[in-house]
Amino acid sequence: AQSVSQHNHHVILSEAASLELGCNYSYGGTVNLFWYVQYPGQHLQLLLKYFSGDPLVKGIKGFEAEFIKSKFSFNLRKPSVQWSDTAEYFCAADQTGANNLFFGTGTRLTVIP
Amino acid sequence: SAVISQKPSRDICQRGTSLTIQCQVDSQVTMMFWYRQQPGQSLTLIATANQGSEATYESGFVIDKFPISRPNLTFSTLTVSNMSPEDSSIYLCSVGGRGGELFFGEGSRLTVL
After folding, report:
1. In the prediction, which pLDDT does A3 show?
2. Which residue from A43, A65, B22, B35 could staple onto B92, CB 3.0 to 4.6 Å apart?
3. pLDDT value at position A28?
């Protein structure tokens, strides 16, 4: 069955620490990958996406993600987090190309000033 | 990007009643998607709503429980029928972008007593 796994449920970091959130998917073949963020009280927003090409994808607010096909992974990274990065982060995958996204369970990030 | 408005933003309902959630988009879109986000869980696709045809439901969701209307290209409704406490959740409307991503409304938080 298709699935997206985020193994970190809650991550707590101090400001300026580096961030890496794990995401693994179970699809074979071509897959489109996404990271979304949900700040407290706000709607889901797209951080970045990968369809093809360079496996290192840069998104908004200094985030990036690396697609590693051999590991079925699409981990999200940021070299130095800020308090304003406190949010819930969701990884998602779409094998159909028809906006049919499957989401991971999300990772809550708390950044301590 | 698309601007998506949902009503109500939150509601508290009694068991056995029904609630209709409205979704308005600021541009014409072919497909609209309804997701559910249960407490502590991932987003789950309920159904895809195309204008002028019956909605397509995902496994585990049925039309009798979650009837959907799609009267035009900018509007859709989702009804949660005969509610039970297990239906307490955030219901999200979304539309697809040209790049394969989804844009989300702010969600409707439903609590069933």
Report:
1. 86
2. B35
3. 75
